[in-house]
Write a structure and sequence with these properties.
Blueprint (H helix, E strand, L loop, with lengths): L20 H10 L11 H5 L10 H9 L3 H9 L6 H5 L6 H12 L4
The chain binds iron/sulfur cluster (2 copies).
One iron/sulfur cluster binds next to α2 and α3.
Length: 110
């Protein structure tokens, strides 16, 4: 294969057939705050566990919307429930409850 000195990024196409509407409705019913997130990243930047793990509420929410439930659960898994992200969220999202609900709803084996 010819080396052009660059590579193409993998496709970022989202396969909506993989989007589990029932689970998202369950999540948004128990935590309507999930609909308020603007993806600003303040929660991730201030995360206590983020320094040592992949914990990120922002990435967990985006993974759900990207139909990647496993990644969402992984991003929520190491949360220490310290609540720092709640203090900095510009949308006043109840981040801890949301993280717990993501783990509860998407972590379940079907
Ligand atoms: S700080 Fe709040 S609005 Fe910003 S990405 Fe985190 S949850 Fe979303
Ligand atoms: S509650 Fe969890 S996600 Fe939020 S700052 Fe603490 S460890 Fe990070």
């Amino acid at each position: 294969m010819i080396d052009f000195g660059y590579t193409l990024n993998p496709s970022s196409r989202i396969n909506l057939d993989n989007f589990d509407r029932n689970k998202f409705e369950k999540l948004s019913k128990s935590e309507p705050d999930v609909l308020l997130c603007i993806g600003c990243g303040s929660c991730t930047a201030s995360c206590t566990a983020g320094k040592y793990t992949d914990t990120s509420l922002r990435k967990a929410i985006l993974s759900i919307l990207d139909c990647n439930e496993k990644a969402a659960v992984d991003f929520a898994a190491s949360c220490l429930l310290c609540g720092k992200c709640t203090l900095v969220c510009p949308r006043s999202i109840n981040t801890r409850n949301l993280l717990l609900s993501i783990t509860k709803i998407y972590g379940k084996k079907q």
